[in-house]
Amino acid sequence: MTDEATAFVPGHVTGFFSAHPREDPARAGSRGAGVALSHGVRVTVRRADDGERGDEPETTLNGESVAMPPVDGVRERLGVPDAAVDAETPLPLGSGFGVSGAMALGTAYAANAVFGRRLSENGLVTAAHCAEVEAGTGLGDVVGQARGGLPIRLEPGAPGYGAMDGVPARPRVEYVTFGEVSTEEVLSGDTTALTRAGERALADLRERPTPDRLVALSRRFAREAELTTDRVESVVADVRAAGGDAAMAMLGDTAFAFGTALSDAGYDPAVCEAHPAGSGLVSE
Amino acid sequence: MTDEATAFVPGHVTGFFSAHPREDPARAGSRGAGVALSHGVRVTVRRADDGERGDEPETTLNGESVAMPPVDGVRERLGVPDAAVDAETPLPLGSGFGVSGAMALGTAYAANAVFGRRLSENGLVTAAHCAEVEAGTGLGDVVGQARGGLPIRLEPGAPGYGAMDGVPARPRVEYVTFGEVSTEEVLSGDTTALTRAGERALADLRERPTPDRLVALSRRFAREAELTTDRVESVVADVRAAGGDAAMAMLGDTAFAFGTALSDAGYDPAVCEAHPAGSGLVSE
């Protein structure tokens, strides 16, 4: 046990997915594929002082107090009501980077260390995945963030139920973001067409698991699922006119690409790498 | 496709294990736990020139030509007879660091890139795991090396059959090594007592998955399985007298510990970290 611990969790962009809701949150999730990013979230957990404790424990994101139900869910599952959670990230919230999943998973790792909870990594991932599913803020980010690389979700759910694979590459990643798309709204609507398109993209990626194919299938998925925003549509058209390829982050008004595809099309993107490792403690 | 590609695979020390031989090498393997090391193996694959091709493709380790059946097995499974394999590592061969497994897995990653084989990461891990099992040189290093961190093998076998977990910590690692112990000899003998001790250690680690517990259970396992060498026995006694703990690498005449336990006991160990990521390409 320790007074304070910090975990790093990579951001995660989903390129395509199918939704698989289930009564049991550990069995619920998504199939699909995406990219774990070297841009991520640092989550520090400490014991709240007596004076700080109100009805709700404190959660901050980049210094601002935020309501973050997946973090509250992790506190409850780990039995750590006094965990004060401070998160720092360069990634925008609600724009398809898995910030809520990262905060949940980072809280699980760091709170496990501070409060001596003795969970294994699978236990921590399960707690964060279930809290994210129950909050309705995501279905597949947490398991992707736990794995790192270019994660493929073969079967939905937390460790023990889900199954993961990966595209064997660690490309440079570029992205531009214009704002939010409501994950809750899409996931709570009719997901039949989306799921059919997502299943087809997954089968095609498994035939040929390369980064180029991941982007091309993600672009096709967003069009088939009718999720592409006007601004992302316009970026993708520019990138393709310049000889490259780009796709939309699920779910945000965000375009992503590998290599220099966005730069080559004249954009000034944020640049990072596919994160090779999954999540973990950085200090305790 | 590319002319040459390089992969990095972490070393892997097993602390305790149970052996689970099966007819199908993808289902064979071990349960147990260990440490993926930041000290590892860089494996470069290139197309052999016409002039180089003999009956056997070339494999080198630190510049010396070596016979490495698990690498030959990967060449066969990937259908890349012309893959020349050059490996570099600071780790000694045959001393419990998973060098043969690392060479197999690194060959799979790099050859997949050079020869455009289009396997997923699970496919690459499966090829290397099966080649290692068939060569009789290891049962669990490859899946541990693919995962990184402090891997726990919950169920034996390649992805799709096996199941992994991890201890949520990334400690500093110290080790001293005195030479070889034959993995083939131990694995081909009666493994009943060993497997009983390994299963018990696994159950106890799952109760409390911490680095300290991993070392203590590994120490107990080596004693119960009657595998502790005289030199490792003496190192462990010194470390415990100094207030620390250490255990033996399975299978090598090697002692390992976390933090500064070996230094504190007056040894001059090699020092590295638990490797946070699994294996992957570093250049192509």
TrEMBL record, chains A, B:
It catalyses: (R)-pantoate + ATP = (R)-4-phosphopantoate + ADP + H(+). Residues 47-56 have a biased composition (Basic and acidic residues). Its EC number is 2.7.1.169. Phosphorylates (R)-pantoate to form (R)-4-phosphopantoate in the CoA biosynthesis pathway. The keyword Kinase applies. One of its GO terms (molecular function) is kinase activity. Pathway: Cofactor biosynthesis; coenzyme A biosynthesis. Keywords: ATP-binding, Coenzyme A biosynthesis, Kinase, Nucleotide-binding, Transferase. The keyword Kinase applies. Residues 47-67 are annotated as: Disordered. Belongs to the GHMP kinase family. PoK subfamily. It comes from Halogeometricum luteum. This is Pantoate kinase. Residues 74-149 form the GHMP kinase N-terminal domain.
